[in-house]
Amino acid sequence: MKFGVPLGLVHPSLWRDLAVHADRLGYESVWLPEHLVFATDLSTAAYPGGASPGIVPETPLFDAPAYLCALAAVTTRVRLGTAVYLHALRHPFIAARAFATLDVVSGGRAVAGVGAGWYAGEWIAAGIDFATRGRRLDEAIAVTRRLWTEPAVAHDGEFFAFPEVAFEPKPVQARLPILAGGESPAALRRAATLCDGWISMPRGLDDVRAPLDRLRALRDGRDGPFEVTVHAAEAPGLEEAAAWAALGVDRLIVRPWRRGREALDGLAAFAELHGLAG
After folding, report:
1. CATH class of 33-176
2. What are the mean pLDDT values of the chain's consecutive 10-residue runs (278 residues total)?
3. How far is Cα 26 from Cα 208, in angstroms, rounded to an integer?
4. Which residues, in sequence order, are CB contacts of 211 under 8 Å at separation 6+?
């Protein structure tokens, strides 16, 4: 089992220290969430089902790939991922360039976790039709793959069109992994058919089985690597980690602390419990 660390669950002032600590302790990855802007009109901010996400419009927001480039400079082993990046809010040139840069700067440690998003406010603010976000993301993923692998690319699609261009440098990784976040039928289909893996919302052992079963059905007959990443609702003990692995989960993003000031000590205790190689 690989273990990742959710940097977004502590204050940004701790991100650097937490990433360095995770790197030294033997955690496999660190992850940043991402939003482009928060609208002051809170009527556009509601999770599916009507629950309030508690958005504060003045919350500081950072460009996730750019911030991960800074963390690449102070770490050596830990992979650097987004959970998740709103790829389709940008032209594929911008998103593909951001992650290719991160991959080169980090020596091949980038992971592009992408999602269609749930928050209409930033799409409205950017002047992009929220209802098209899924189709835009599917097209953006396809274009990005071509930019990262082909010597020259031209494209004429539903949302993006451009004449032949060159795109250099390519990522260091032969296949920079793109993982799809989300749990709707469309998100699971995207993960299974267009991407290299899936990232869940916070889940427990019992309530992750249904999406995993659906992914297996969608992946039936498909070749190639595919990684399942789950945000664990609770940091697991040894037996529970083994149970996650038995379900087919490859990576758990864990939070072995309750308060930000406990994060560094919590990471160390969890690493010792699970025998991570620091």
Report:
1. alpha beta
2. 97 97 98 94 69 78 98 98 97 98 98 95 95 98 98 98 98 98 96 97 93 96 93 96 96 96 97 91
3. 26
4. 183, 188, 198, 200
Structure-token pair, residue 253: 């993003």
Query: Beta strand 29-32 with 79-82: parallel, antiparallel or unpaired?
Result: parallel
pLDDT for 223 = 86
What is the residue whose two structure tokens read 């419009």?
Answer: 57
What residues have CB less than 8 Å from 270, skipping those under 6 apart?
A: 3, 235, 254, 256, 276
Tokens of 192: 């299974």
